[in-house]
Amino acid sequence: MARHAFTELLNNAAEHSGGTQVTVSMRQTPLQLQLLVSDDGCGVFERIGQSFAIDDPLLAMLELSKGKLTSAPEGHCGHGLFFTSRLADVFDLHANHAAFQCRAWENRPWRAGRPVARQGTSIYLAIALDTTRTLDGVLRAHSVDAGYRFDRTVVPLHLLGGAEQALVSRADARRVAARLGEFRRADIDFSGIHDIGHGFADELFRVFPRNNPALQLVPVGMNRDVQAMVASVGPAMAAGAPLSA
């Protein structure tokens, strides 16, 4: 896993950052293997903004969290950063005055961190020496058929809605649905979302599936109010979906 993470992060910095220098540091403590990769390029969120016209780091992180996002589709598939973040127990991403953290033991895959004021992108990860996680297991967990085809993802809606903001508009739903047609299954994670509007639910769970019949949308982490709204536009969507506290 360490070799995979090192290779992916180094190649990502060398080929996408637009910088002139990459610094790599690796060390082993009694409990963890730690890796830091930093470049002096434009920053990953600036690169996403240039390629996809997304100028909000939160929205950029939402797209990164889905996977298959690359600014050079002719030569890359957008798997590297996605899978590397899921191999690690601790994963921190710093770029363009924004920071996001992923912790393997937390229910929410991403949360905002404290940004580091520096040029380029810095990625820090740590893997516990006694981890039971494997590269094979991570790859298979994101395949509908438990193979190696990357066709299953999770969309963490708290990156779009925040702790107190309701998701109400069809525009919000279209942001969530962007590029999901590239997958066979997408779990829509409502953890931390307390309320949604009818327009949002209708666009995401009725209109979008009608135009993408090969994609299975699975809402998870809903509270009772959100589940009721989802059920109002597509009862089959909410049936059996786990409720959050």
TrEMBL record:
Pfam families according to UniProt: DUF4325 (PF14213), HATPase_c (PF02518)
This protein's name: DUF4325 domain-containing protein
Boundaries of every DUF4325 domain copy: 174-226
InterPro entries: DUF4325 (IPR025474), HATPase_C_sf (IPR036890), HATPase_dom (IPR003594)
Domain Histidine kinase/HSP90-like ATPase: 3-90
Listed Gene3D superfamilies: Histidine kinase-like ATPase, C-terminal domain
Tree of life domain: Bacteria
